[in-house]
Design brief:
The protein has 304 residues and is an alpha/beta fold. 38% of the residues lie in helices and 16% in strands. The chain has eleven helices and eight strands.
Length: 304
Amino acid sequence: MSNIDSKTSNDKVYYRSTEIEGLKVFYREAGRKNAPAVLLLHGFPTSSHMFRNLIPKLANDYHVIAPDFPGFGLSAMPGVSEFEYSFDNLARITFKFIESLNLKKLSLYVMDYGAPVGYRIASEHPELIQSLIVQNANAYDEGLDNDFWKPIKKYWSDKSKENGDALKALCQLSATQWQYHTGVRDVEAISPDTWIHDQVGLDRPGNNDIQIELFYSYGSNPPLYPSWQKYFRDHQPPMLIVWGKNDQIFPPAGAEPYKKDLKNLEYHLLDTGHFALEEDGDQIATLMLAFLKRVLPAAVSAKN
């Protein structure tokens, strides 16, 4: 891995990989290494590709890093018999990735699967986190009280082949496209490259087994919600919520409870769906830049 030359354009994105415990971890990186760090954690069924347009918008002011979790994107995809696909393990690998880049402080963007990975790290290493940006990322029981989660909750209670097979439909092209189209204002403004890119990853031999295992592991997250909420209350990280309000997976019912635990909270419901960056990426970038400018100087000066 070579250092980014501070004399070059800061918004240039580099496509890199490193090795964590023998696993290739792919990541996108931009900005000056000595700038405040912003770590972007993706959701299902995508990868760091979901941040392809956001990264250059942040990179002139921040050191931006977006890894692919194992089993996603261009990171290693060992089989389920070779690697434990659990959120505990994804968080462990991601923290080791953070250590490998020598990141001592960072702002954390979490979306979908990024939340249970990121919140595990934040609650265990609160000294690391300067601020949180939350986009359709759940930490409350209210966010899972909808029809989408019923078959997944059934699998949590009974990990049978029948219940697992019922979830395979969530890995099909129609379901992937549904995630990108549902709740958006203008379907024609959503690039088909998004769901095609994600589906190529899902269609790799063995990847469906990985995703079914992670659907089951998602059941390990609700029992941790109280500890994450305690982290919010005790440490009060500055938080920006930019949430697609028409999301049928993580609806606004999961965004509202953050208000009761966070004092320094900026809250925006956007008129779009699950992958809010696809339709409202410019607005999210503008809100992030203003938020980070507001909260980071105090956080940096207080610690350095």
